[in-house]
Amino acid sequence: MKELNLTAQKREGTGKGPNRRLRQDGDVPAIVYGPETQPIAIRINYRTLYRLLHGAPLNTLINLDIEGEGGPARKVIIRELQKDPVSGNLVHIDFHSVAMDKPITVTVPVNTVGIPLGVKTFGGIVEHIQRDVTISCLPAHIPEEITIDISELNIGESMHVSNLKIDNVTILDEGTRTLVTVVAPTVVKSAAEEAAAAAAEGEAAEGEAAEGEAAAEGEAKGEGEEKTEGKDKKDKKEGGEEKGKKKKE
Q1: Domain locations in the chain?
Q2: What is the CATH number of domain 3-97?
Q3: Is the full-model pTM beyond 0.70?
């Protein structure tokens, strides 16, 4: 793996106030720590740091030269990058000091190459289940990434952690964990299609409800008319009987 060179200065003040002023001066606050190293608060020029790290792999080894320390540069890797949630600017960095003769634990990205057989032949879909793995190795053997060829995967087949074979590296994740799989094609509805379908169902339901109400209203009206008609006939009949009685009298 390629190594980078970086120069830093020690900083005296710590905390929000001093760090804010430091950033206003164009520097980034950072700290260096490790198993055999006392934590050291440092500052690094923002532009220098950005140019150095732009496009560099996550676990790149860095030769960190702290001005005034003397002796050889420290071998470090970046453990944490903190960024401003609004601007995206770097606001703090944690460097981990490493010994070249002792294993270190890091997380490495897993990338895939090739188009699976199940995709080309049957229109399957590739699902990435896990995109990185945790490994242990000497700093000089840290890979930038782990690449796996998925071109032979058919529908229903997967690649697992146990399929990874890397020289001089011990993979710490369980071998049964799935990295990538190919599944059968499915119809994925867009948000607009789902909304349209829901609206159509709602209109259908409203139509059925309206028909039900109309039918009920019609039945009620029919019953009312029948009752009125019956009453009219009854009244006419009773009226006729009364007239008949009067004539007899």
Answers
A1: 3-97, 104-183, 188-249
A2: 2.40.240.10
A3: no
Tens digits of pLDDT across the chain (249 residues): 678 999 999 988 777 777 888 888 889 999 999 887 889 999 999 999 888 888 788 889 999 999 988 778 999 999 999 998 998 888 999 999 999 999 999 999 999 999 999 999 999 999 999 999 999 999 999 999 999 999 999 999 999 999 999 999 999 999 999 999 999 997 544 455 666 666 766 665 555 555 555 555 555 555 555 555 555 554 544 544 444 444 444
**Which one of 2.170.120.20, 3.20.20.140, 3.50.50.60, 2.60.120.200 gives the CATH number of domain 104-183?**
2.170.120.20
Q: Provide DSSP, 125-176.
A: EEEES--EEEEEE-GGG--S-EEEE-TT--TT-EEEGGG---TT-EE-S-TT
